[in-house]
From TrEMBL:
The chain crosses the membrane at residues 23-46, 120-139, 146-164, 170-188, 195-211, 217-234, 246-266, 319-337, 344-362, 382-407, 419-436. The lineage of its organism: Bacteria, Bacillati, Actinomycetota, Actinomycetes, Micromonosporales. The keyword Cytoplasm does not apply. This is Glycosyl transferase. Keywords: Membrane, Transmembrane, Transmembrane helix.
């Protein structure tokens, strides 16, 4: 059964003509998709432990920690939904963060034996190639007749600028393998007599996607809801026959996923260290409407300066289709407009162009002040947890359907060679400039042998924490995040880069930082300024109080840290004791301090 049914006037099959055997396109996809994925991630594969993705070092470090956490859940039996191995002693609500347990758990043996750096590079590579392959499989078997059309759709879905952009450290937005399967299983809910079977399958897919990325699942749900409304308005005569099995299947899916997710979601929204909202307003990260007409910085035709002027971040280039592709998509819409389901796909994509634009319309870097639909709903629960520009991911998916179905309607080469040639030349002209370049990496500050060899255990007794200098934090404590991950989280580490409440007791507003402490603030300022401050008696008293709160066993500063000299001098002054140089790191032993 083809999910996207033809309009009545097109129901008569057309002669297929001479086409490549399906296995040929299967082989092409099996070579091209993985090769492109490896090419994009090639610079990280050169040294997975020693290099970082330059556009997003913070999330690179965060996901190293997440993968180390999954390894501990498997090999040490620790709670997968909460950990105090980072942000010690308060801990982190892992369900309220992007813990990617559905990915981290399967690769935990790799993390255990080869380290989190290899697992991270592997998942990003699998994410790009696997997402393309998943779309190819679903499109080719359930939405279009020709594998060449499915190949074009899969190529776009797996390697669109949004995917390459998020591959700069966002594993949760790169491994989107389940997305086409979710669309397919929602579409077949209308099948009569299979409500239980279809509902259970969909419920299991929903459950799995929750443990990859809930934000993506919400996008899929919203896209399906808008598509369904459009589709029903165009199929009113068939609504009754489809509605009953569809509603039954949806109820079964909700029940299945609800039972499986009840406890994890309880922990996420009501458990220890839960939070509400994001630490920024919805108009901060929006999609500039003009960005659809130019190329992303990671595309081969991209202009970095122009892309930066129209983008909020190198990891959020979610549009950037380029003018030729926009023109081709308009042609695709015309070619497929007679198919009612495709009209619904086009409308859904346009709706998300509008939603992704944010509360007010931004064009060419200028906020026009024109209110957009999101202005009226951005405060609603769940919606207020979304980075607005990421709604544009749905536009990417709509375009994958549009490209594939339009390509499926192009006559075979032996029946209309000129039209077929024009079509595929147009596709090449539109897609080649968007093709990705290898992601840029940079050398990370080398991990001290003290950490990689496990010698730190000599200085951190059981029940005490390992305190990196400076403690891990977004933008200023990246070495600390890597130190925690590459020590396999064997010792608890204070603070960190994660999402949690501003203050767990009084203010549940979401933030990226642990509550401020004087000692960490002093060390962060040294990283920013490169200068050692004048240490006061009050600073020394605060340092002792902070170390007591963190139950510190030892403070560790890599001797190759860019600000090692002022950090070393300041910590020595704060503690009134000299460090030892051990295994490439300065160590201050403080396990004798009372806690």
């Amino acid at each position: 059964m083809r999910v996207l049914e033809s309009a009545p006037e097109e129901a008569t099959p057309q002669p297929a003509g001479r086409r490549r055997a399906p296995w040929v396109w299967d082989a092409i996809a099996g070579v091209v998709y993985p090769a492109l994925a490896v090419l994009v991630m090639s610079r990280l594969w050169a040294d997975p432990d020693g290099r970082v993705l330059r556009a997003n070092e913070d999330d690179h470090g965060f996901f190293l920690f997440v993968l180390a956490h999954a390894e501990r859940a498997v090999f040490h039996g620790e709670n997968p939904f909460f950990t105090d191995r980072l942000n010690f002693p308060d801990g982190i609500n892992m369900m309220a963060n992007t813990s990617i347990l559905a990915l981290g758990v399967p690769v935990s043996p790799i993390t255990h034996w080869l380290g989190p750096g290899v697992s991270l590079a592997l998942l990003l590579t699998i994410g790009l190639g696997g997402t393309a392959a998943a779309w190819y499989w679903v499109l080719g078997r359930h939405f279009v007749r020709t594998r060449s059309a499915a190949f074009a759709g899969g190529l776009w879905a797996g390697f669109a600028p949004a995917m390459i952009s998020h591959a700069n450290g966002h594993i949760n937005f790169t491994v989107l393998i389940l997305v086409p399967f979710l669309f397919w299983r929602v579409a077949v809910l209308r099948e009569p007599g299979r409500s239980v079977r279809n509902g259970v399958i969909l419920g299991l897919l929903i459950t799995a996607q929750v443990f990859v990325n809930e934000e993506i699942l919400l996008f899929v749900a919203l896209a399906c809801a808008i598509f369904t409304i459009c589709w029903v308005l165009m199929h009113r005569a068939d609504f009754t026959s489809y509605a009953i099995p569809g509603i039954k299947g949806l109820a079964v899916a909700a029940g299945t996923s609800g039972v499986l997710l009840a406890y994890p979601l309880f922990q996420q929204f009501l458990g220890r260290q839960h939070y509400r909202g994001l630490p920024f307003e919805p108009d901060v990260y929006v999609t500039d409407l003009a960005s659809y007409l130019v190329y992303a910085r990671q595309s081969i035709a991209g202009d970095t300066a122009l892309a930066e002027s129209l983008s909020v971040s190198a990891t959020e280039d979610n549009s950037f289709f380029g003018l030729p592709l926009v023109v081709l998509l308009v042609v695709c819409a015309v070619l497929t407009w007679r198919i009612r389901a495709m009209r619904a796909v086009v409308i859904t994509g346009l709706v998300f162009v509008i939603i992704g634009s944010g509360p007010t319309l931004v064009v060419g870097g200028t906020d026009t002040g024109v209110p957009m639909p999101l202005f009226f709903v951005s405060h609603l629960p769940l919606i207020n947890l979304i980075t607005t520009t990421r709604f544009t991911m749905v536009v990417v998916w709509a375009c994958a359907f549009l490209l594939a179905v339009a390509a499926d309607r192009v006559p075979a080469r032996d029946r209309a060679p000129r039209r077929a040639l024009i079509w595929w030349v147009a596709v090449a002209v539109a897609l080649i400039p968007v093709a990705p370049k290898p992601l840029v990496t940079a050398p990370a500050t080398p991990m001290p042998e003290l950490i990689t060899s496990g010698r730190w255990r000599e200085f951190v007794p059981e029940g005490r924490s390992l305190v990196p200098v400076p403690p891990p934090e977004v933008t200023v404590g990246r070495e600390g995040m890597r130190m925690a991950a590459f020590s396999a989280l064997d010792a608890p580490v204070p603070r960190g880069y994660f999402m949690g409440p501003t203050n767990g007791e009084t203010d549940p507003t979401g933030t990226w930082n642990a509550p401020a402490r004087r000692t960490s603030d002093i060390l962060y300022e040294i990283v920013r300024s490169g200068r050692a401050p004048v240490v006061t008696p009050a600073d020394r008293s605060a340092a002792l109080a902070d170390l007591k709160y963190w139950r510190a066993g030892a403070l560790v500063l890599g001797e190759r840290h860019p600000q090692a000299a002022p950090l070393r001098a300041t910590v020595t002054d704060l503690l009134g004791r000299e460090p030892r140089l051990v295994g490439g790191a300065w160590v201050w032993e403080v396990s004798d301090l009372p806690v």
